[in-house]
Design brief:
210 residues; Hect, E3 ligase catalytic domain fold; three-stranded antiparallel sheet; two-stranded antiparallel sheet
Length: 210
């Protein structure tokens, strides 16, 4: 079963199958077009907030929200099973699958919101923007392999991602990035102990709960 609560553009019918939500799908297509025109994900988030378009988690839009959307193969009608897995030596932690275990890719598993051509163009644009910012994909993968929850947890108050921080007595926690950068006047924040986050078996972007 595919969760649609954090999956803009789709609902489920009485049989549990994905069906397109026309209003949300129109927004997804518009976001994709605007991004391909050259508007960055952060500016796109500001535009969506200004227009009053609700985000999938109910808070403000972030650049990460759009990156998660644009890189999600489900929007072109495909479904990649086993993108994440639980290693035998880390039973309480999920990690990205880079070929360590068998995965399954199903094409045309449900109605597409974006054409394959548009989806492919989005991937090219994302990589082009990465090169422009001198962000090496290998460096990103190394960090995500080391901390697989990076980019997977979102603040329930402002919608921004949580960041891993080492605090007092080397206690590892995940904190709201808005709270870290702008303080509690901007967001009351959320604080999740690393061991608690690891026990949640997070395999998809998730709104954090203390």
């Amino acid at each position: 079963m595919i969760n649609t609560e954090r999956f803009m553009g789709y609902d489920k019918n009485e049989f549990g199958e994905l069906v397109i939500n026309p209003k949300e799908a129109m927004a997804v297509r518009s976001f994709a077009d605007i991004y391909l025109w050259g508007v960055g994900s952060s500016r796109l988030g500001q535009l969506a907030d200004f227009l009053g378009i609700p985000s999938v988690i109910g808070g403000k839009w972030t650049g990460g929200s759009f990156m998660g959307m644009f890189k999600n193969e489900k929007y072109k009608g495909d479904f990649h099973l086993q993108k994440y897995y639980i290693p035998e030596d880390k039973r309480n932690q999920t990690v990205r699958n880079h070929g360590e275990v068998q995965s399954y890719y199903m094409e045309d598993s449900h109605p597409a919101i974006l054409s394959t051509e548009v989806w492919d163009a989005l991937q090219e644009k994302i990589e082009e923007n990465k090169r422009g910012r001198n962000i090496a994909q290998s460096d990103t993968q190394k960090y995500q392999n080391r901390y697989p929850l990076t980019g997977m947890m979102y603040c329930p108050h402002c919608g921004k991602t949580l960041r891993r921080r080492i605090g007092y007595k080397k206690k590892v926690e995940w904190l709201c990035s808005t709270y870290i950068e702008e303080g509690k006047q901007a967001c009351p924040g959320v604080r999740i102990p690393d061991e608690s986050a690891a026990r949640q078996d997070i395999i998809e972007p998730t709104v954090a709960e203390e």
